[in-house]
Structures are given as C-alpha cells and as structure tokens.
Amino acid sequence: MAAISPNQVVTITYDLSVTDENQEKVLVESAEADAPMVFIYGQSGLPEEFERQLDGKNAGDTFQFSLTPEQAYGEYDEQALVEIPKDVFMIDGKLDEEMLQEGNFLPMADNEGNHMQAKVISIGDTAVQMDFNHPLAGMVMHFDGKVADVRPATPEELAHGHVHGEGGHQH
After folding, report:
1. What is the pTM of this model?
2. How far apart are CA 148 and CA 62, in angstroms?
3. 114 with 124: CB under 8 angstroms?
4. Residue 106 and residue 101: Cα distance in Å, rounded?
C-alpha cells in the first residue's frame, strides 16, 4: 500500500472550517466521497504546509490540522483591493451585467499574462473595485478529513501536472 509522498495521486474527503471574527469555527467547504479532492502530491499548487500535514498517511487514515494565514494564503492585503476602469469589462461596447455583479469571482490577467481570480467588491459609475486576495487570505483554516486513496501518478499525469480519469482531468 502506497503512503502519501511526492508524485502520488491523493484522494481525500474533508470539511474545511475557518475561524470567524468571534473565534467560532464556521464550515466553508466540504469535499464528500462523491466529489473528493484529488491531486498529485508535490504538484498540487496547494499550500506546502497542507501537503506536509498529509505526508506519509495511507488510505483510510484520518487527519485533523489547522493552518495559519502564514502557512496558507497569507494575511489579507489591503493593497490587493484595486479600482479597475469599467470599460475594461466591456465586450463589443456593452457591459456584461450578468458577469459583473458584486460577489462574483472573475478570471483576470495582469500585464505579464499571469492568470488570477478576483472578486467584484463594488461597481461604481466609472470603475469596479476588485479584490485580488485569495478568498481564504487572513483566515485560520481547520481541516478534518480522511485519506480515501493513494496511488502512484502515471507518467502522463506527471508530465501534464494533473490527475487524469476519475476525480481528475478528462482529455
């Protein structure tokens, strides 16, 4: 039986809670058995400490750990709140009002072509305020879960950097 280590495909189920302003744990996400999280250990893009906490575990093992903002997505950065001219969101001279709604996450790219997600905070007459912080920035995250499966990644999965087949990417 394979243990979680680099280049293993890991399937987990979990509940993710964050600590709110009242120091209460609030459930924000669940990955259930019918839709687990599946990733290649070491190539997931997940915080390093998240992967480190799973290192060496086997299918059937449970886990429970917390990550501080420093171990995860960093502190909330007020500098990541950006005003963007409204005309940037025009398509063929029209504003896509269904897309441009407060609370929506939109795919964006910076001047170097790096892709990121940003949340629409507010829409003014001439500009849109966008938040480029990760949605979990500044939050203590609490994971409670179980390792469902561990298997070696195929050469194709390693070359592509993502899981293929069930729970993964379909080509």
Report:
1. 0.81
2. 9
3. no
4. 10
CB 133 within 8 A of CB 80: yes
CA pair distance 53, 68, nearest whole angstrom: 13
What's the CA gap between 66 and 49, in Å, rounded?
Answer: 10
In this predicted model, what pLDDT tens digit does every residue of 43-100 receive, in sequence order?
Answer: 988 999 999 999 999 999 999 999 999 999 999 999 999 999 998 888 888 887 788 8
Fill in the amino acid letter for 13.
T
Give the total residue count for the chain: 171
Token couple for 22: 């009242």
State which H helix or E strand residue 143 sits in: strand 141-152
Question: Position of tokens 């992967």?
Answer: 51
Q: Which helix (H) or strand (E) holds 45?
A: none
